[in-house]
Design a protein that fits this description.
It holds the Pfam family LysR_substrate. This is LysR family transcriptional regulator. InterPro entries: LysR-type_TF_proteobact-type, LysR_HTH_N, LysR_subst-bd, WH-like_DNA-bd_sf, WH_DNA-bd_sf. Residues 1-58 form the HTH lysR-type domain. It is a single chain. The protein is of the alpha+beta class. It contains 10 helices and 11 strands. The strands form 3 sheets. Strands 3, 4, 5, 6, 9, 10 and 11 form a 7-stranded mixed β-sheet that branches. Strands 1-2 form a two-stranded antiparallel ribbon. The protein has a two-stranded antiparallel ribbon with strand order 7-8. Helix 1 crosses helix 2, helix 1 (3-15) crosses helix 3 and helix 1 packs across helix 4. The longest helix has 28 residues, at 59-86. It is rod-shaped.
Length: 291
Amino acid sequence: MNSDDLRIFVAVAEAKGVSRAAARLGLPKSSVSRQVTRLEAEAGAILFERGRGGVRLTDAGHALFDQAVRVGQLIEGAAASVQAALAAPRGVLRVNVPHLFATQFLAPRLPDFLRDCPEVELVIDVSHAPAGAMAPETDVVVRVGPLEDSALIARKLGVSELRLYAAPQALGRLSPRRAGALLAEAGLVEAVALGQYRSVVGFAGGRASRRVQVQEPLARMALVLAGAGAAWLPAFLCRDAVAQGRLVDLAPGDARGPIDLHALFPAHLAASPKVRAFIGFLAGAMGPLRG
């Protein structure tokens, strides 16, 4: 059975007549009648009972009708998905991302997306929203850490962790290994839940001491980059600074995590070209986050 014959069969059943179905489809009556006859031959059963008022489905016709409708829906859905995938991303895309992620990771990389998708206009919201929550006008949300149950589709972008970083100028003559050891000797290696780290530890006179306590990661990162001392920071935010030699890892074997990063979006936007393009960009920008 081919899909075209099934489409004609459904049209005749719904119109309750070959002539009416042919008129709706814009086909010759003879062609419609011939396809119905061919389908009945393939099915090995009479599908329609013919009478003065038109046609009606037989028991065999009823059995085939539901399956034929499903086949038609599957074909239409597949065609729509292909067309959506081929369409150029365009229009306004509203995203919600954490402030730290937006300023330290997304913003420096965003010109690449804007260059590749010139017909997309981004609206970026960095206001806090509970994990799993989504404003009605938002297309994509990015969440760092555990997710709550929700009806949103979640695409995992990568896995990061917390690492103990310091700027080289904060160490003086200390090696990174020795600086990490001094923190351990002073009992200053924090052992708290992810998201509750706050200490910035400085080094002087061969000793380590707590100099600042601040839970906001962006402020902690700024202090570390300025040379105030060592602190636990998200690895995905520090990757560029490490590559540039602006930060060093004091305890490579003691990473804390994992920290999952996800993009979430409603099911009806799964085939949206602009959503697919943005999430693909994020996944590519993340790359391998470990190490």
